[in-house]
Design brief:
The protein is α/β, with parallel strands linked by helices. It is built from eight helices and five strands. The chain binds adenosine-5'-diphosphate. Adenosine-5'-diphosphate (ADP) binds next to helix 2 and helix 3.
């Protein structure tokens, strides 16, 4: 059976986590959020968590190989799933290439990358607002928020081109109610998949 694999793409604060929850319920997918996985490692005090935290606290990316190995482990743990939603991954072209190789092995490619479009000023506002309650150190300081957005523009945005070249890219307006944005995403998924 063919799995439905989706990348949810977008800058920090675009609403990927919120929309992931709705997509998972609707399409019965397994969530792979590399940010959540690292935060779990940090909470459990693992070696990987300690290593990742040094980068996360500064708003920098965790080195590719650490991320890729962690995702590989998650893919094999969940090999019977009906599909994956990748949230916050891939964040570099190198990670996107590695993901394609991992999915090639099981002959289940990415169906579509959905990009949430939100203007930069709104992202900053949302992240600093979230920082008041999330307890995330990377949301609580304007300089770190700015670093994350710059890192996104320099290192992650090229991933959009990578998927555009494969005709697997769809932009969605990330401004509006949660339900309206979800409706736009569902439509984009439907037009790229056979379900
Ligand atoms: P946000 O999208 O709000 O930045 P995430 O939870 O996706 O939040 O990521 C938080 C941090 O975790 C990032 O700033 C980065 O340090 C690290 N991280 C998460 N995913 C990756 C990844 N795929 N590659 C490198 N670092 C990552």
């Amino acid at each position: 059976m063919n799995k439905l694999n989706i990348v949810l793409f977008g800058p920090p604060g675009a609403g990927k986590g919120t929309q992931s929850e709705l997509i998972i319920k609707e399409f019965n997918l397994t969530h792979i959020s590399t940010g959540d996985l690292f935060r779990k490692h940090i909470g459990e005090g693992t070696e990987l968590g300690k290593e990742a935290q040094r980068y996360m606290d500064e708003g920098e990316l965790v080195p590719d190989q650490l991320v890729i190995d962690m995702v590989e482990a998650k893919l094999s743990e969940n090999h019977t799933t009906t599909g994956f939603i990748f949230d916050g991954f891939p964040r570099t072209v190198n990670q996107a290439e590695a993901l394609d190789k991992l999915l090639d092995r099981v002959s289940n490619p990415i169906a579509v990358t959905i990009a949430l479009e939100v203007p930069e000023e709104e992202l900053k506002r949302r992240l600093l607002e979230r920082g008041k309650t999330s307890g995330r150190p990377d949301d609580q300081n304007e300089e770190k928020v700015n670093t994350r957005i710059s890192v996104y523009l320099a290192e992650t945005l090229p991933v959009a081109t990578y998927y555009k070249e494969q005709s697997k890219f769809s932009s969605v307006d990330g401004i509006g109610s949660i339900e309206d944005i979800f409706a736009r995403i569902s439509q984009a998924i439907a037009s790229h998949s056979t379900i």
